[in-house]
Amino acid sequence: MKKYLLLFTLLIIGFSLFSQKKHQLSLVGGIDTSKVDIKSVYELFNNYLNDTPDSIHFKTNPYWDRDEVNDYLSKGMPYFDESAGLMYRSLSAEEHWSFYEPKILAIEQVDSNLYTIKTLYYNETYSKDSVYGCWNPPYITKHYCERQGGKYFLKNAITYETQYWNKYQYEMLHYLVHPSLKFNSKQAEEALKFIKKTCSQYNLPIPKRIDYYCTGTREELAKLFNFSYLLSYMNGVSSKYLSRIIIKDDNFSHIHELSHIIFNHPKWRKNSRPLIVNEGLATFLGGADGKKSFSENLKEWAEELRQVDTLTLDDIIENKYRHLTDNNPIYVTGAYIFKLVYRQHQEEGVIKLFNCGKEIADFKIVIENLFDMPYDTFKVWILEKIKEE
Q: Which among 85, 90, 227, 366 could disulfide-bond with 356, CB atoms 3.0 to 4.6 Å apart, if both were Cys?
């Protein structure tokens, strides 16, 4: 018995050691790690990626700037590396490393105490696929490394990348605008009016501060999330935790993204609802992309729906039917549901649907209550109603 117990113990230890295998980041030629600072930056980032950067245990991590960690986590963020939210949505950090085999492209000095490190995520086998090869590489990250007291720490790019941007303030709205863009004060006033009107209408607290970044291009937007390159059609991102909006273009009154920020009551849980609900409300109030109105989106979606008779609401909710470069099917369908809810139940109905719960099952229960019909009937009826628009 003791013999088997010992064998079992050795197997557990062996598995533990195997699971903790440390990867070694490869580098392109020309990066001179014989230089003390470059070697320090390389080892810092290598250790960071090896220590599950997708884990919340990083509250006590030795790699990242302590002030940034405390600031992000104190606001409820599930991570503090701006790139983590996009990188680890479907793959864990360990799976990421195994699949993409990250490689350091450059370690460059910015000033005496500051470096940047660029990392390519690329899968050689995946690149040869006839269908999916065009989606590879998905990104190149760019992190800042600052020396503090003789030791380097990682930091997010957003402060450094925007330090020379133009700044404007309209009450709680703090705009940071890329120098290539011209600020539009009329749009800022429209944004302010929308915030006050909507908060009053739905009895919401007016945010004390909203940081509003206008980047000018998708490339500049990606930089603020620690990416030197990002394969994405992302045009705007908002964070309730940080009370922050980052958009691609020069829209200083992006009602869709502002809606995400202001529909944030202290009694409500953040991000605890299905996508069709979360994005549906923002689209109902401000259109799907900040360019066209919801009514324009609806007209286009109704025309498309009339051409695809076999489409179901489940296909839309589960993203089995979607566009290549936008999420309009689920966004606009959700918005139309909110339109009908508002028509029948006013603000009370909108808030009830918005707070339906995290799961689709919760959504279905609230839908049945609001529309007074079985969900199986509703999911056929709602698409027919859209086709009539």
A: 366
